[in-house]
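STRUCTURE:
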């Protein structure tokens, strides 16, 4: 009897261990602030380029974010369909657009916040759920644009507002990176925050002059945003918390 009980306990432990180690994929869709970067862009980093460092080995990050894309162009170019075709039950989709959706001069990318932009976010959410994956909405990280009062100026208008409304409407987990990064960058201040963005004297074949880029992140900045995002995920998406380091 003791032997049978012992074997039952061992089997149960092994079963639980296997369950805990079940692999899932996290698909990231968005723009250049998320995207992987080519070596010639160094030290520029997208925050989803480093987020795998914050998950344990049971999570595989598949970063499909791409420079210059809006919610519209990501769909029109077939990039969303590629992700959708790959989704498996239990996977997650991290969705962050807005930076390029606001470019009214470009008809291939521009969307209306409470019109086509909202429709595109709904599409990402509903189609992810149809594949039994979990969508998570992210508002855009802030641009480093300080006003005369020494505080950041808003540069994203109604796009983060629209994202929050879709999250509430469809009961989607929301990571409000706009608010989180705004607080972080404001606390750093104008001068210190330059280290987190692409203010660098490094020159390359592609960038022959020092860069003063207030949109894209440095390696250090990308890691901080990934830290903010995963800390919020632990609170907003409890089922992912045990997969974080």
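SEQUENCE:
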């Amino acid at each position: 009897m003791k032997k049978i009980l012992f074997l039952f306990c061992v089997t149960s432990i092994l079963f639980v261990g296997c369950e805990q180690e079940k692999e899932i994929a996290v698909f990231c869709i968005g723009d250049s602030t998320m995207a992987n970067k080519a070596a010639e862009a160094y030290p520029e980093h997208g925050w989803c380029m480093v987020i795998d460092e914050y998950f344990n080995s049971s999570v595989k990050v598949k970063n499909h974010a791409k420079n210059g894309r809006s919610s519209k162009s990501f769909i029109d170019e077939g990039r969303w369909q590629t992700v959708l075709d790959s989704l498996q039950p239990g996977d997650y989709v991290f969705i962050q657009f807005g930076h390029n959706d606001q470019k009214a001069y470009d008809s291939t990318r521009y969307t209306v916040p409470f019109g086509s932009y909202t429709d595109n976010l709904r599409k990402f959410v509903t189609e992810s759920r149809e594949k039994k994956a979990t969508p998570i909405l992210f508002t855009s990280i802030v641009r480093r644009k300080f006003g005369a009062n020494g505080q950041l100026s808003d540069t994203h208008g109604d796009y983060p507002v629209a994202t929050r409304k879709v999250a509430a409407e469809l009961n989607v987990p929301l990571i409000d990176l706009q608010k989180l990064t705004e607080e972080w960058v404001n606390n750093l201040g104008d001068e210190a925050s330059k280290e987190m963005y692409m203010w660098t004297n490094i020159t390359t074949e592609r960038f022959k002059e020092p860069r003063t880029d207030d949109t894209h992140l440095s390696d250090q900045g990308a890691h901080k945003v990934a830290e903010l995002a995963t800390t919020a995920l632990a609170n907003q998406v409890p089922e992912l918390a045990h997969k974080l380091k």
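REMARK: The helical segments are 2-20, 71-76, 79-86, 113-130, 159-170, 177-192, 219-236, 238-241.
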